[in-house]
Amino acid sequence: MMSDHVEVLGPPPPNVEKSQTMYHNIRPNVPEEFRDDPLYAKASAQDHLDAKAAKQARRDHRAAMVVAAKANQDRRGREDVGLSAEEVPAKKRKAPKK
């Protein structure tokens, strides 16, 4: 019934960031007989630049979010949200059963 309306999709395009990570971080730990697998292939120069730009943009965005969160805390008049080691309440031990 529903099989008439189902389209068969092709595989998604390769993720250049993931392929770069696989080549540089994972491939050195892969046994020699599997290193020629396309999964561990070196990305092209353009893919390398694209992945590097995406990582840099993500890093910049995260830094901007930290600044915005800090400004929001300052605007609300709060200090640090987290508790320091001295402020964390000690866990109570359960009394041993007799």
TrEMBL record:
* Basic and acidic residues bias spans: 72-81
Q: By what name is this protein known?
A: Uncharacterized protein
Q: Superkingdom of the source?
A: Eukaryota
Region entry Disordered, spans: 1-20, 68-98
